[in-house]
Amino acid sequence: MKIKTKVLKSILALSMAGVLAACGNNGEADNNENGAGTANNGNINAGDGEVDNTDVEGNNTVNESSNVNENDGEEITITYASGQDTTNATDALVEAFEEQNPNITVEVREMTADTGQSHDQYVTEFSGGDDTIDVFDADVIWPAEFAQAGYALELDRFIEADDINLDDYFEGTVDSGNFDGRMWAMPTYTDAGLLYYRTDIVDSPPETWDELIEMSQELQGEEGTDFGYLMQANQYEGLVVNAIEFFGAYGAEVIDEDQNVTINSPEAVTALEKMIEIVASDFVPGDILNFDEPATENAFINGQAIFARNWPYMQANAQNEEISEVTGNVGFSLLPAGDEGSAAGLGGWMTMINRNSQNVEAAWEFVKFKTGEEGQKISAVEGGRAPTIRALYDDEEVQEAAPLFADEEFVETLENAIPRPVTPIYPQISDIMQIELSRALAGDISAEEAIENMEQEIESALDE
Predict the structure, then answer these.
(1) Can you tell me the distance from the alpha carbon of 133 to that of 136, in angstroms, rounded to the nearest whole number?
(2) Average of per-residue pLDDT across 259-285
(3) CA atoms of 86 and 82, how far apart (whole Å)
(4) Which domains occur in the chain, in start order?
(5) Where would I find the H helices in 62-208?
(6) What's the pLDDT at 87?
(7) Residue 346 and residue 112: Cα distance in Å, rounded?
(8) Per the UniProt record, which residue ranges are transmembrane (predicted)?
(9) Residue 242 pLDDT more than 90?
């Protein structure tokens, strides 16, 4: 059953695979951010005490004697901690910054590719007051945790002084860096969930989850496929991301901006019931509760499924003739909509400043450059990293470097991306959600029971 379709407009280089994965800036898809590692690694005692707001907001008195006055020509060196980078992006970024700031030298400290291990290492160093690192890359789910624990420097005074317009950035990426009404991290590059589909089977992708269910049932078996739909339903961080996408599509949220638990709503129940309906269907693998990103990718590129939810990195492998059986027959679109529209889970990275830094002003100059238009353009052109600044997707050099960036549907997906709960105890909340969601998807409890359990357990965790 071959029908005319909207085909994938472009193919990224295989090196894009790791860069555009939900988080991870190495050469491979880093499943720790979207996998069990993020939720279970390195819980810090964020609830032990709140940040000293006077110290943070009035940070002109903190390390002032060591801060750089960019007009006095003082030579200074800052340390920037970043994950492994198999592209030229980091070197090019640092070189361009140093050319414009000849009195500031940036030393790059390469962290492990395992984001969970990097998280734990930061926690160990920052909790001990270590000031070796000045600037560091942070997973989108870290800022609130690091802010509450007193590891990160509040950035609002710098943002205001340099007249940076946060409206230029995708809203979800800004929200990820905001906690307690203040900015602790600047958006650096982003990622969002996509719906992949077989262009040799379907005319156009489903617009709603109900349409996906209908099409999956009707078309299952076409062109040798075994399944209608694939997703990440294993008990790990990827399950939380999938749930957040369903919640967003049906107008539900887990925690509001004031840290109130809002998950117990009819919208959340409806969203979870839709997830359960899909997982319990005959058009998903019998072991769907064991599926993570690699399992999804392997099944899809081997021609086993019509639709699959995954991150943008998968499209490169899907179009790689050496490993894919569906080359030339892959398209992507927004995830299906619920009652409130389409919602994609936000991935990506932020940039933060160590609150213990002795070089705060120089650190900010690097952060400002790195996360501004010039820095993000370098990262996009040299490393294929998806910018968080909307205007860069209209830049011809950016589009030429990674043609996916010229695809309006991809950009729309990034614009619709929603963050996971922004809270200093996110690892605990993720664990709670993983357990209750898994119980519901396995049929052990109802959607209503799972939602009520999540509400009670998250409230208890926030009260500790």
Answers:
(1) 7
(2) 98
(3) 12
(4) 59-184+347-418 (3.40.190.10)
(5) 89-100, 115-127, 143-148, 156-161, 171-177
(6) 84
(7) 22
(8) none
(9) yes
